[in-house]
Amino acid sequence: MPGEVKDECGVAAVYLPRPLKEYPFGGAAYYLYKMLVQMQNRGQVSAGITTFNANRQQLIDTYKKRGMVSEVFATRIEGKAHAILQRYEGNKGIGHVRYTTSGGNDEGSAQPFERHHGRKWKWFSFGFNGNIANFSELKKDLEDRQYHLVRNLDTEMIMHFLEKEQLGDKKKPMDKIFKNISDIFDGAYNMSYINAEGTVAAMRDPLGVRPMSYLISDDFVGAASETVALNKFAENGVKTMEPGEMLLVENDSVEVKRYAKSKKKAHCMFEWVYFANAASMIDERSVYQTRWRLGEELARQEYLKVNSDDWVVVPVPDTAKPAADAYAHTIGIPSMEGLIRNRYVGRTFIEGGDRLEKIREKFNLNKSVIKDKKVILVDDSIVRGNTSKSLVEYLRKYGKVKELHMRVTCPPIRSPCFYGIDMSTIGELIANRHSSKEQLNRVGFLDLEQDAVDSIGKNIGVDSLRYMTLEGLVKSIGLDGGKKDLCLACLTGEYPTPWGETLRVKALERFERGLESTRTYE
């Protein structure tokens, strides 16, 4: 649901094997810009790159700012954009787009994080996608050793652990470094890494919670959180990086190698449902086709008699459109854009606190297709319910719809995510606010009772509400391992790591004691 769940982050890495003169101006900086633009959906708070150039005094140099990728690279000002590419020209580099699930939104918290050192292999920069669940424990360990976290970020903590792995005079192999930190970290932690020797690495954590792909060709070597960031650099050849694997560029040799054992897989189901670009492939599964199958599954579960000219399906832009189209196609009624996103409304600091007004800024109503119609609104998820409620009010008040029904491609979300999604408390989730204490304490998927679903629907303001079933979700994603290869913790309360389980218990205790934050959720 737009505005309810925030995107996480995206990482990228590039190595250009041929002489720089054979590439577009800027070399790695140019390609990283192109890749980050394609992953803008994963984070809009800040963007940055670090590039390597052996002919530059500043062997690795980092450029990062707040804002969208086009703003950071000043693409509307040709001279300024040219100067940025010229300064950060190189044949290797890493990049990052960020949304904050922890820490501040200031420029200093933007990534990549660079750590200077006199020895080249100890001078490094890295970008990170995910969340370290045992952050509090590791932070205490660092503080006991007289470290200090200035920004209180898990990214900052990772930097210190990478630094600790490189203590001493002997250079440690990169796979050993990442193996050692994987033994310490609990959570999701994909990374891109570069040092002043020109070593580049991109790694996927042993559970594979977040996606990572790579491409190796004669002209271009790269890795990125999404395949869309790599597709334009080769007609085919983009491959999935398996959990516990890393792409390593060292001494201008390229290899993909295993750095840690993967005892199990826990791919985040929300990547297919909401986060990823619809044109991406995640673990060999098309995001678009998955969303289409989710729509078909919703249609098969439909109980309403939807068969007259009065009905129209309306997707909530943009992630729900494939599902809405599939639902409509299966049912046999039109899918039409009754809501049109205003793509020219960016981040703004001049906005009031009225939620309905924010919805009106973000979406334009196409009244010609919804007025006096029975509307089936298809969305990817309902998390806190606030934005859904405002959207429904907007459609009823200004769209003059006859009826309004909501269908959701994700089952009810009833547990926090501790692996990089911005939903961290029990009470903020609307499914929990309409559940019994017994349901809240239960681990394992539990379909909400129909009266609870009806209560949520009434709260949101729709005539009827239906969620996707867990079985329908798993089937639509279609991984070979089925449910056991997915992270479904936010649906089931069953976490793939020990610290995920620990944090859920603590969150439940805070909720029951009334100690949760009272922040206003978007």
Molecular structure report:
The protein has 522 residues and is an alpha+beta fold. 31% of the residues lie in helices and 21% in strands. The chain is built from 18 helices and 23 strands. It has a seven-stranded antiparallel beta sheet. It has a six-stranded antiparallel beta sheet with strand order 5-6-7-8-12-13. α10 crosses α12 (386-399). The N and C termini lie close together (10 Å). The model is unreliable at 347-352 and 518-522 (pLDDT under 50).
Brief summary of the model shown:
The chain has 522 residues and is an alpha+beta fold. The protein starts with 8 loop residues before the first strand and ends in a 10-residue tail after the last helix.
Layout of strands and helices, then pairs:
Layout: E1 9-15, H1 28-38, E2 46-52, E3 60-66, H2 69-72, H3 78-87, E4 92-98, E5 113-115, E6 124-132, H4 135-144, H5 154-165, H6 174-182, E7 187-195, E8 200-203, E9 213-216, E10 221-224, E11 239-240, E12 245-250, E13 253-258, E14 267-268, H7 269-275, E15 281-282, E16 285-286, H8 287-300, E17 311-315, H9 321-331, E18 339-341, H10 355-362, E19 363-365, H11 367-370, E20 374-379, H12 386-399, E21 403-408, H13 430-433, H14 437-441, H15 450-460, E22 464-467, H16 470-477, E23 486-487, H17 489-492, H18 498-512
Parallel strand pairs: 14-23, 17-20, 20-21, 21-22
Antiparallel strand pairs: 1-4, 1-10, 2-3, 2-4, 5-6, 6-7, 7-8, 8-12, 9-10, 9-11, 12-13, 15-16, 18-19
